[in-house]
Specification:
Layout lengths: L1 E8 L5 H10 L8 E7 L5 E7 L7 H7 L3 E8 L2 H8 L2
Antiparallel strand pairs: 1-3, 1-4, 2-3
Amino acid sequence: MLFLVIEKFRNRDAVPIGERFRREGRMMPADVAYVASWVDAAEARCFQIMEAPRAESLAPWIRCWEDLVEFEIVPVETSAEFWARIQS
């Protein structure tokens, strides 16, 4: 499954997030894969696409970052998958 992960930087401060990332890496469980990410122009949020078997698989990764980031997890599918599914 694909998940859109919206990370809101606590205190709008990306510096500690970058420092931890350089020190520790992404710290993801083995069954979670990073696909892509974007940071908004205000430098207050990051939008990531992650792939995992289920939303609960993201929990260990979230615990590693939740002191610095507020998370919103949105299950998504590609447009092609969506259109194929609803036209069946």
